[in-house]
């Protein structure tokens, strides 16, 4: 019997004992869609089209297969005695960037000693293998203050260049239909592919698909844009794990149906030579100067990542920023954001501000985070290609909702989120510039909310709400198809966390 089976069976026995012998709580219950079998294995139950809830476990730093490393410091920095400290930190980063990386890709850790660092500009890390670490995230430990009135990121982790398709490698997916949850599909030729290749699983946008989900029929108001096909050419980053005959097997699952009716799909290899990796930011308190509660002319984001993979932000506190504590941009992949806080944002309480933990990238993990006075605290943007996970996070004094924000995010798990506000997955219609359907394959698992709306789009997949504690309400439109709901306001869901159960199952096979 595997270690996972022993753990799961032990947990089940323990939960049953506690429920029956001590607290008199109802027995643990399981979803009909993902459940632990009597043998202790994780089972996925397909719907009528073969779709399953996907495996979300391969997200974050090195897909969760490696612990975030701890390295000794090679450089120490102290605050400037007077004035700006930004140049001192940037000089240290540039010095370490000239070092050769070790076998793990690490160049060096820079330790920012306890004290107050006033910074008028942006600190930039554009080389792999650099860790920026403080001596703690309390205000009396390592404290970086963004001074002045410029809208900017205080720390920017960013590589160079762009993703490039390897010409001549693109082939058609030949299956008429590839369901959500699949880890393989057939292609017209596997001659150019092998295990270890990085590939794009490409799903084209088509007018037929736009029409089927009625996003060419958004009720107009000033500034509304109907969706266009070219905006929805979706590129999911994957790695080939096996090639067998004309079938390709990939590491992360398909999170949106690929249907011949709507253009099917393609696969090609890619390069991203300028993308950086093994960069960490940890144990720092970030603050922004501001003039008043609704000030918009001050620092925007504490830590921003783009064109970066296998990086982390850990144990930071961000106060008073107008937008985010951490923002993972479009080309940020396999980033872990762990034990971070976004507190007391300062801005107008309206569109475009207070997105406490913001994600546009792929295969990213936000875990054990806290937000106060935000609007969209755990949020994805438009055309966000999953999987992505928000796990075990809290939001209080909220001014808007958690969830996919607009224009089709794909494959996100909201797992054990606790908020005094809302989680919504819905057709947002004419909101903004025509937000429309916010997303598909959005899974809300064992969350606690004031209220929630979870709807499924007209076609191309479903959204799920399992084990929610809180009110269910109709959402912006009351005539949209309902999502898949199970066990609302029932306690003792098992497993308590879908993400952790999937991670344990995969790592203990």
From TrEMBL:
Residue stretches spanning the membrane: none
Signal peptide region: 1-21
InterPro entries per UniProt: Pectin_lyas_fold (IPR012334), Pectin_lyase_fold/virulence (IPR011050)
Keywords: Signal
Protein name as catalogued: Pectate lyase
Native source organism of the sequence: Parabacteroides faecis
